[in-house]
Amino acid sequence: MHFIDVVLPIPLEKTFTYLVSEKEASFLKTGMRVAVPFGKTKIYTGLVYRVHQTPPETYKPKEIDQILDEAPIITPLQLKQWEWIASYYMCSLGEVFKASVPTAFLLESETLILRNENFNPEAETTLADDEWLVYEALQYQSMLKVHEVSSIVDRKNILPVLKRLLDKNVIQLKEEVYEQYKPKLVRYVKLGASYASDEALSKLLASLSSRAHKQRDVVMTLFSIEATEKKPISVKSLEEKSGASSAVIKTLVDKEILEEYYLQEDRLQFDLEEVSSLKDLNSYQTEAFDEILNHYKTDDVVLLHGVTSSGKTEVYVKLIEKVIAEGKQVLYLLPEIALTTQLIKRLQDYFGEKVSVYHSKYSVNERVEVWNHILQANEKAQIVIGARSAVLLPFSNLGLVIVDEEHEVSFKQFDPAPRYHARDTAIVLANIHKAKTLLGTATPSIESYYNAKIGKYKLVEITRRYGDVLMPDIELTDIKEKHRKKRMTGHFSDRLLEEMKLALEEGEQIILFQNRRGFAPILECNTCGHSPQCPNCDVSLTYHQYKNQLRCHYCGYAMAKQLTCLACGSSELDTKGFGTEQIEAELKELFPEVNVGRMDSDTTRGKHGYEKIITAFEQQEIDILVGTQMLTKGLDFRNVSLVGVMNADNLLNFPDFRAHERSFQLIQQVAGRAGRTKKRGKVIIQTYNPYHQVLQQASLNRYDELFADQINERRQFKYPPFTRMIKITFKHKDYNKVNEASSWYAKAVNTVFNATKTEMLGPEFPPVSRIRNEYLKNIVLKAPQNQSTVQTKEALRKIDKTFQAIAAYRSVRVIYNVDAY
Q: I need a surface site. Which of 47, 465, 648, 782 has the fewest CB within 10 A?
């Protein structure tokens, strides 16, 4: 007997064994997909993990439903990386599988409800009202889907109804599995075979010219295109060039004068006429490039610390050119989809069709196509640009991994599992492929810089901006003083307005940064002080003026803006705080003749949302761009001379041990958008506390000072890089259950780690302690560097097993987040 172990895309630790025939066992390989029955009615897409002959001991294996692939869609090296992610980030292999593959690869099983022909119609009087509604619907329709039954009965949980109908033999259930990916087929036409000779063609044209001029024009156009272009002609291009309608072409096809056929085509097409040559590097870039190559002879990871606008991208491009010349693949990771928009254009200019892009704004079908190109190591996917999920793709011959803006928080996945950090995963991926890694940034994360200082990574620095442009002049403005002297106009100080007027007069562009979207975070009653709260979460609702509604940024709950206070009925409502929307509204009043744009997650929905705003700003259709931190990352705008930070204090006063480091990074990054060509840029930072140490360090570009301060603090208070942090979150709808479960777990942790130097913080409620009606409570473990992380996690897994065995706590969800920062 032959068996296969299958990984299912569900959060269960182990693999499941299924029975296969000898013929199937000889055909199946690790990394192929099979559809398998699981539970009573479900069919899942599983991944073959192992083919063997050992039967399971505890259960009778089921047979597989069908084989879905001709060849593996997962490479052995990729599976090795997935196993590392599952083990390091404490999640199941199934969760990694689900997160990695495009959803089109996970076949959907749709339960269909059919009429049972054996049911006696006379027994319909025994049916309850909701059962009878389903029965009646099946008299008119041969089958129903689950969601259709839900709308007929008008309730969400319809399983009890279906169970009663099954027991009474009224219905039958059937699973229908359907593929989600469909290749894109394009319709082409050619002249019918019977008109191939010149004689037949001239006869045809003569017959058409007497009665069907439009049809003759189409045939003539087709003939002339075939003669000049020597490539297949699509129906669309024939319509455009001949000026005829699709009806005329259809008539010609029906008459068999034209023959139609279909060709499969990629959804992502590349339309650049020619590839431009690479730019020459300046002396600083050349020096950095040579240093990197030199380090790669002995080491695998290099940290490139180059100030903003020092031309790091050109160094990356030179490295990419060298690696693809060796026939290897390159992965280029970026933290933000907005960044890929600008970079794709630059890389396609240099490398043409060798560039592929992979991120969540692309459709499922587009992602499947990119996946297949990488799997087959096609030339189309020699260079892959993507956000964090691109690190999970099926590379087979990786030569270089570039992680740009390596300090960025967006490289960390917070929900759902696997909660991996793309930078760390990329280093492991490169190690598996014996490839090199380059981490690039203007403001390194404390951990990476520390690793470079202790020799774990090699450090290369570029200290001058490209073209010897000066670093921007950063000025701190005290808004507490400005308020006192009545020199504020709305949220703008007189200094910021003065500089904005100057920049606009000289035809230059401005970026304003406010790290909060919406109009105002709080709407408050002036009479009783009440502010509307989200019913599902522990937060106030944010006011969005453009939709005139109050919205929760955690669960998406929305309500129309109230005209009177919900508590006391007073009509005196006022907003507190401000977001990007309010800044945009104020700008339109202050500068009515100027074009203002806004870039935050409200305005960049949809695949081309980022592209439209960035292109408009590049082409100087927008004079002032207001935005959240999307704006701060590596974007290259040539004409920006002024950057304003509306309020630096809400960055600094965030309850997180990395708040100061992040504030420094954000200010430096947003400042780096100013003055990137000839003229020195200006940055104005508005703050209530201009003498704050971090703001002073940021305004004087003193990263070394910040690093020294931060590393001392972290050593003193036992934070990374001196410890490993594991955050354990408990979630449940019942407040008491969360409390009891977390206390039990904390006691168990104390008992197990008593003899070690592991520190435990909590259990503690986070600042937002209820999200989507679920209460949260956290425990943070800080394990010292010299303690084995593997053993720490093993001990936690044992505690977790005992925890799951306690019936009272089984419904409490426990989430492990390794390196939760």
A: 782
Spatial distance between the Cα atoms of 611 and 601, rounded to a whole number of angstroms: 13
The superfamily in CATH containing domain 2-107 is PriA, 3(prime) DNA-binding domain (3.40.1440.60)
Concatenating the DSSP letter of every residue in 640-652 gives EEEEEES-SHHHH
Within the chain, what is the greatest distance between any pair of CA atoms?
100
Peptide bond into 766 cis (omega under 30): no
CATH number corresponding to 473-516+594-712? 3.40.50.300
Q: Cα dihedral sign for 123, 128, 133, 137?
A: negative
**pTM for this model (two decimals):** 0.82
478 or 346, greater pLDDT: 478
What is the dotted CATH code of the domain comprising 283-466? 3.40.50.300
DSSP type of residue 352: G
Helix (H) or strand (E) holding 739: helix 735-752
Q: Kindly state the tokens that stand for 633.
A: 């990352």
- Mean pLDDT is lowest, of 12-16, 223-227, 728-732, 750-754, for 223-227
The secondary structure of residue 533, as a DSSP letter, is B
Helix boundaries (H) for 601-702: 609-618, 649-652, 659-671, 693-699
Per-residue pLDDT band at 272 (split at 50, 70, 90): very low
Q: Which CATH fold topology does 109-178 show?
A: Arc Repressor Mutant, subunit A (1.10.10)
Look up residue 336 and give its DSSP letter.
-
DSSP code string of 17-84: EEEE-HHHHHH--TT-EEEEEETTTEEEEEEEEEEES---SSSPPPBPSEE--SS-SS-HHHHHHHHH
SS3 544: strand
| CATH 1.10.10 domain span(s) along the chain | 109-178
Beta strands in 695-787 (DSSP E): 723-732, 759-764, 770-771, 774-784
Q: Could you read off the pLDDT of 574-617 as tens digits, one per residue?
A: 888 888 999 999 999 999 999 999 888 777 766 677 778 888 88
Is there a contact between 285 and 315 (Cβ–Cβ < 8 Å)? yes
Give residue 122's identity as a one-letter amino acid code.
E
Q: Is the peptide bond before 416 cis (omega within 30 degrees of 0)?
A: yes
92 DSSP 8-state letter: -
**301 or 604, greater pLDDT:** 301
Contact 49, 30 (CB under 8 A): yes
Q: In terms of C-beta density within 10 A (0-12 exposed, 13-18 middle, 19 or more buried), how is residue 478 classed?
A: middle
| Residue 747: φ, ψ to 5° | -65, -45
pLDDT at 273: 46
**Whole-number Å distance between alpha carbons of 734 and 812:** 9
